[in-house]
Amino acid sequence: DRHAEVLALYDQQVWGVVKEYTQDQINAVSLLARLELAGVDVGAARWADVAGHLAQRLSDQVLPFLDLQYLYGLARAGRVAEARSLLQHIVGHAASRSEAHERTVWQQVCVPAAHGLLAHATGDWATAARQLGLALPQLVAVGGSHAQRDLFHQIYLDALARNGQWTPLQNLLQPQANAQPESKRLARQLRSVYAALALDGTLGAA
Q: Cα separation of 119 and 75, whole Å?
């Protein structure tokens, strides 16, 4: 909950060092998104700064994981037209794949994940929950580390909450909270779930 400190770390060490570098761009998107999911006001200017660089990557389609980060960053910055353009590039790239495994990854994982991320960034919680729910079981195929892909899981959980899908959310959150009792973020999320379901906050904690 040390919001000022984490934003200073973002400004000084995560973003603004080599803004043209892909890894710095996706790290910036990931940290800004995670901070917002944790209730931090990151400010529109930070998103806008990152998006100016992401807009140059609409036709990259090198790795699904990267495209998904680019798309979410553009959409969260309010550059929805460019995010939709990137989505169309993703769909077209997926349709053009000839190798079976690559086609499966782009069509069955990246495309629904991209639809879900765009929906979340634009406030369509039901579509976000549905599309991300389709992609998550095979998400490992898009690339990135487990820790990096966890961002998409967090966005999915947020979509469930905002869409009022409290029971499936509890089923996903409770094991995570049990395994990470030190996490204030998970504890805060569970308190919201318990309140919505009118449950005692100690249920399922054992």
A: 9
